[in-house]
Design brief:
alpha/beta, Immunoglobulin-like, TIM Barrel, Oligo-1,6-glucosidase, domain 2, six-stranded antiparallel beta sheet
């Protein structure tokens, strides 16, 4: 079985295990380490390791020094000078003119490459210390739990009973209201903490004219349908009492067409609010042509001061009320339209406000594709990692396509591929890993680890449907998509980043699109819950919480081929090996020295046992994910 990665390739990543610093400073110096295994014939792993960095736009060369060696390989070290706010670098690892290799963030290349995949260190990207230890739980407030708030249903809304089917096609989609409230969320927080999650992510709570509330009519008040400002205050107090941090959701790209600002802008062309929006004559520009979502114009200084810049802004006010961070909706398009691009300025202004008001606040951007150009400076801490995690994982574990070679029987789902008018592909591990490495290799390590990992969200089909679990919006009690779902779950909780669970995924809920996925939580029907899935969520969340390497360790690929992928999470305090097979396959054999010196056994944390015999490690072919502790004398 040929792997797309060589377990004896030299390795470096931007994690503290290889950089020996977590707070780079402009003008400072960062010690870098490179691990170079010995060759398979026992010869030394390298005769030369050279650091190539870029300073002021010009390459700079510095030789590394071999500082130690053992039976598995050698460690080389070299100092990197941080001359610029963003420094890119890579390593030349050579044994002579016939062995010419560049080690970059995207892997090993036996040829000259561009700087695009270089490792990167930003002196402006300062991640709050608590973020890597988070396990998130996403709640769509209208669909989590009901309480009586005494609010009158507005004229735009259509009341639904809790067990009514979700309308996910046609004009009734945004107006179907189930009556979930923030007090309802507070009442069910023990479920969130019982899973082991420690972060609550709420989709918008501001007053709006839809169930999703991305069309806010004001940023100054919480929707009365959710219980108003007092209910948010109670929720934040209860969440913090239980040890949960809370991240809110803010639209900086647009407002609703009934927003206070927009109504003033339309009524008075001479008003300051007119400058908050993009107008072309008497017509306004809307987001993606959706007339109810007028596009904000971020060339307005007054808009900035009201929305996100300074102590009197919306961003500042609700952080002071107790939010621990913001998720910014449509961050990729915020400030961008035609020839105008204010995106980085907006992101930086939000960060500046957060740094002043809540220095340890987390700023997360929604970005559905390549976010690398937006994650290297003092703006967004990270993004929702659809590009580097969700998409490749869906392609590897797609169990609902005809002939899909994944675990479980599966049910054909007919889903398109996250906006592309084609069926979700079924791709081998080497393709999935290549995408992951390319996406993550384009951003600094600190940005990658502050991105959120989603199997799905309120904007996508349910992962359980992707894996072949069904299309009716109910719970896959029969377990048609369970096997592949739980493989994805295990990878979500063993890879770098912040895993986030969308409410109900732990029960095995299905859904064919984002609106369909917004199913009211079936609290009153616990007998329908898929218990093996719920148990698996609790198990993998507990493992993530228990092992620092899974939260803060580096990432080193050992094998990627067809139905199998294998990697290490390396931390100063422990090293763990993760081995995943999407179906039963042949055992995978890797050299013992790839794991480090003196490895005599791999104690099993979960899954099937591995065997260590002499210079080889045999990893099981059973379908599923196994986790091992790598022990060395």
């Amino acid at each position: 079985m040929t792997s797309a990665v060589d377990p004896l390739d030299p390795h470096h990543d931007g994690s503290p295990y290889y950089t020996r610093t977590e707070a780079p400073v402009l003008g400072g110096r960062v010690p870098l380490r490179v691990r170079v295994p010995h060759r398979r014939d026992g010869a030394p792993g390298a005769v030369e390791v050279v650091l190539r960095s870029v300073r002021d736009g010009e390459p700079a060369i510095r030789r590394a020094t071999q500082v130690s060696t053992d039976a598995a390989g050698a460690w080389w070290e070299v100092d990197l000078d941080l001359v610029n706010p963003l420094t890119s670098y890579r390593f030349l690892v050579s044994r002579g003119p016939d062995d010419y290799r560049w080690l970059t963030a995207t892997g090993i290349h036996r040829r000259d490459v561009t700087d695009a995949g270089d490792f990167k260190i930003s002196t402006e990207h300062h991640l709050p210390a608590w973020v890597p230890d988070q396990i998130g739980y996403q709640v769509f407030p209208d669909r989590f739990e009901k309480t009586d708030v005494g609010a009158t249903l507005p004229d735009w809304a259509r009341a639904a009973q809790w067990d009514d089917p979700v309308v996910h096609k046609g004009p009734e989609v945004p107006v179907q209201v189930y009556g979930g409230t923030l007090d309802g969320v507070a009442a069910r927080l023990e479920h969130v903490t019982s899973l082991g999650a420690n972060l609550l992510y709420l989709t918008p709570v501001f007053e709006a004219r839809s169930n999703h509330r991305y069309d806010a009519i004001s940023f100054d008040r919480v929707d009365p349908l959710l219980g108003g400002d007092a209910a948010l205050e109670r929720l934040l107090a209860r969440a913090h009492e239980l040890g949960l941090r809370v991240v809110g959701d803010l639209t900086t790209n647009h407002t609703g067409d009934f927003h206070d600002w927009f109504l003033q802008a339309v009524a008075d062309p001479t008003s300051v609010e007119r400058g908050f929006y993009r107008f072309e004559g008497d017509d306004y520009v809307s987001w993606l042509g959706i007339s109810s979502l007028p596009k904000l114009d971020h060339s307005s200084a007054e808009l900035a001061s009201r929305l996100y810049a300074g102590p009197d802004s919306v961003v500042a006010r609700w952080l002071e009320q107790g939010l621990d961070g913001w998720r910014i909706d449509v961050a990729n398009m915020t400030g961008r339209l035609g020839a105008d691009d204010h995106a980085h300025a907006v992101a930086r202004a939000i960060r500046d406000t957060m740094d002043d008001v809540r220095p340890d606040g987390w700023l997360l951007a929604e970005h559905g594709h390549d976010a690398s150009q937006d994650l290297t400076g003092p703006g967004w801490h990270g993004t929702m990692d659809y590009a580097g995690f969700t998409r490749p994982l869906w392609c590897w574990l797609n169990g609902g396509a005809p002939g899909a070679a994944t675990a479980g029987a599966g049910i054909e789902h007919g889903l398109d591929y996250l906006g592309l008018p084609i069926d979700i592909p079924v791709l081998p591990a080497e393709a999935a890993v290549a995408t992951m490495r390319e996406v993550h290799g384009s951003m600094p390590w600190g940005s990658w680890t502050s991105c959120t990992m989603h199997l799905d969200s309120h904007d996508t089909p349910r992962f359980r449907t992707v894996t072949g679990g069904g299309v009716d919006g109910g719970i896959d009690q029969a377990g048609h998509g369970r096997d592949a779902h739980l493989i994805g779950l295990a990878l979500q909780f063993t890879m770098p980043g912040v895993p986030v669970v969308f409410m109900g995924d732990e029960l095995g809920l299905t859904g064919v699109d984002g609106e369909h996925a917004r199913t009211p939580y079936p609290w009153n029907r616990p007998e329908t819950w898929d218990t093996p899935t719920l148990d698996a969520y609790r198990e993998w969340i507990a493992l993530r919480n228990a092992h620092v390497a899974l939260r803060r360790g580096g990432m080193r690929w050992l094998h990627a081929s067809g139905d199998t992928l294998t990697f290490l999470r390396e931390h100063h305090d422990q090293t763990l090996l993760v081995h995943a097979n999407r179906v039963a396959t042949d055992p995978v054999v890797v050299p013992t020295q790839a794991l480090g010196p003196g490895v005599a056994a791999l104690p099993t944390v979960v899954g099937s046992a591995a065997s260590v015999t002499g210079d080889q490690v045999s990893l099981p072919g059973a379908a599923g994910v196994s986790l091992y502790t790598v022990t060395s004398p």
